[in-house]
Predict the structure.
Amino acid sequence: MSKRDYYEILGVSRDASPEEVKSAYRKLAMKYHPDRNQDNPEAEEKFKEVGEAYEVLSHSEKRQRYDRFGHDGVKGAQGYDPNFDLSDALRTFMEEGFGFGFGDIFGGGQRRGDRRERGRDLQISLELDLEEIAAGVKKRLKINKQVQCNTCNGEGSRPGSKASTCPTCQGAGEVRQVSQSIFGRFVNVSACSQCRGKGTIITNPCETCRGEGRVRGEETVEVNIPAGVMSGNYLSVQGKGNAGPNSGPNGDLIVVIQEKDHPLFVRHENNVVFDYYASFPELAMGGSVEIPTLEVADKELPHENPDRYKKVEITIPAGTQVGKVFRLRGKGIPELRSHSKGDFLVQIKVWIPTKLSARDKELLGDLLKSENIQAPKKEKGFFQRLKEVLNFE
């Protein structure tokens, strides 16, 4: 079964920039991450497929080989491929046979230089409460990941020894096989299977990392979270992901934000809603009340305790009805990468006592006799009036 095109998997064009490739990968990786799709076994396969595509297209040398030779170019396959694209063959043929640098015409000639493999990106979830989101916060995260081996300093070889040049590719990281066809002499270039494209062979591997140049370990990373983030937003911390093999560059750390539910406040975009439970006398007579805000006054108190927060005073007019909303402008969540803020909304609700003393019942009974507190009778609807006209019960 043929493999899907890596560009098609990520949904990018073949001339996509590295930034576009990375952006596409991150969106798809979050979409298909197994933690988010526990009941969807197909998502895990798609997640692996996206990771495989990104591993190739994010690596300049691998991408170049893939662009020229397809999947065989990044799998170490050797031998002539009958499906080999003629334009690729002509380019390689011209480079090998004439040396005029025709590779530039076909999208870039052969490159030499650093072939070290980059470490994989690492994605973690970070839970934040609403107060942290409103103010912004600095977090120190302990990350379990692949780190550079201290024994061999990431080289993969036992201390005192060095990797040797690959005898198959002579350090080039790729091999060439010449074939003859009716078109003439063709050269098929593929990744060296012996050194996996690295150009070197570790003959005396480090006992600690077994030649990988990296081991499992922990690192503490400090992350600055700006105010206004929401669930699903992510931050990329460059070079703080998994270490690359044999001193290869680190991948990035992707921190995905998850917002925790708050016991007092509810977020709606950049607005914050607080339900204030008033008694009947408060609503009937009016008065001033103190409302907790998102600004913390005493962080030692639990989140559900209103005394944890700084208060603002609002006036409730006499006769305020249940459902009335008071708006405190600019007291909500800051808009990400902006100077504007949402609003703080105080929604009025009524508190009904469940336990009454004999005296309470007596007072309420007297109050019920007053005409001023009787709810207005609801006007008859059209159908009710119609029934009366037609003498329907």
In short: The first strand starts at residue 122 and ends at 128. Residues 76-114 have pLDDT under 50 and may be disordered. The first helix runs from residue 6 to 10. DSSP finds nine helices and 15 strands in the chain.
